[in-house]
Specification:
Blueprint: E1 7-10, H1 13-24, E2 26-33, E3 48-55, E4 58-64, E5 78-82, H2 85-96, E6 100-107, E7 113-118, E8 124-129
Helix pairs in contact: 1-2
Length: 131
């Protein structure tokens, strides 16, 4: 059995991780900067080489993108399923702040709440409730 950890490459890993921790509840678990690696250039010392955090009870990893733009794929969303409508509505509102709603969070014909959004960092999310 494997564990899946979404790993973000970011233009500003500290800010992005803090956004998710604040939006969804969680904490920064660990962080390592490029400055901790031997031979790092002075201009990169404060950049994140690896950070672990939790948000909405999910484990995530993130790092500053040092090798080109940190674009996210068009063919993938991250999905968060919540037990209650209240949790789903709060997460949707918080994640979409500064981003854009792709599909409003509404009751769907299959019986759950469902909505899609793109957060301010360009990550697409689906928010739903359990059936």
């Amino acid at each position: 059995m494997a564990k899946l950890y979404p790993y973000f490459y970011s233009k500003d890993a500290k800010r992005q991780a803090e956004f998710y921790v604040n939006a969804l509840g969680g904490e920064i678990l660990s962080r390592m900067t490029y400055g901790q690696a031997p031979g790092t250039e002075e201009s990169m010392k404060d950049k994140i080489i690896h950070m672990a955090f939790t948000a909405a009870g999910v484990n995530f990893f993130i790092a500053d993108s040092m090798h080109g733009p940190s674009g996210y794929g068009e063919g993938m969303d991250l999905t968060l399923e919540f037990a209650t409508e209240e949790e789903a509505r709060l997460a949707f509102a918080n994640l979409s702040e500064g981003g854009r709603v792709i599909m409003a969070l509404e009751k769907q014909f299959w019986g759950t709440l469902f909505g899609r959004l793109e957060d301010p960092f360009g990550v697409k999310w689906q928010v739903t409730t359990s059936a």
